[in-house]
Amino acid sequence: MPQSSRAPAVTVLAGPTSVGKSTLSRHIRTHYPQVHFSVSATTRPPRPGEVHGEDYYFIEPEEFDRLVDEGAFLEWATVHGRHRYGTLRSTVEQALAAGRRVLLEIDLQGARQVRRTMPEAQFVFLAPPTWEDLVARLIGRGTESAQEQQRRLETARIELAAEEEFDVTIINDDVDRAAEELVAQMGFEPTPNA
Predict the structure, then answer these.
(1) Where are the domains of the chain?
(2) pTM metric for this prediction
(3) Which of 76, 77, 142, 156 is most open to solvent, judged by the fewest CB atoms within 10 Å of its CB?
(4) Is the separation of the CB atoms in 32 and 187 below 8 Å?
(5) Is the per-residue pLDDT at 87 higher than 90?
């Protein structure tokens, strides 16, 4: 699939909790194999259907600490006051060395860290169509307790206010359309390989 030589080598996708970053990423993985995903590491347990090494690297907190101490992360953060997430520097460097375009799906804190270390990257904010859609999505997935849902919604309000820090905003009102727009922003022809 053709790609533009002027597109950035690294694209960062971030947005508020429950906006559908993981759903969009899974769709792109399935339909756009030319996009290289950097799989994040996390200390949280897997949700139903998530696969180690594909959705995330699920690691113990002690291992995460060791990797932080070694400087192994391009970015990392504690999210929602509970679990840590991070992008392993080695996975990004290996993909770039192979001439691949890399997509990082990370949280707002991580995006800010990458902006400091890789200002040449492209930063894409994934936004919900409305606040009500975001609330319905979070509650509808049923994977968090009511207390955790409330914590995530409080975080989401803060995250939504950061939209202006990003280069591009994509509204996640339809996963096919949002995927096409993101892939085009990365410099690829937005034609899915079903």
Answers:
(1) 10-185
(2) 0.83
(3) 142
(4) no
(5) yes
Do the beta carbons of residue 139 and residue 26 sit within 8 Å? Answer: no
* Identity of the residue numbered 169: T
N-to-C CA span, the chain? 13
Task: Name beta bridge partners: 57.
Answer: 41
183 — pLDDT class (breaks 50, 70, 90)? very high
Residue count of the chain, please give it: 194
How far apart (Å, rounded) are the C-alpha atoms in residues 144 and 163? 25
Is-contact 74 106, C-beta < 8 A?
no
Distance CA 24, CA 185 (A): 14
Residues near 49 by beta carbon (within 8 Å), at least 6 away in sequence: none
Note the pLDDT of residue 3.
Answer: 46
d(CA 172, CA 74): 26
Give the residue from 120, 109, 89 showing the smallest Cα distance to 17: 109
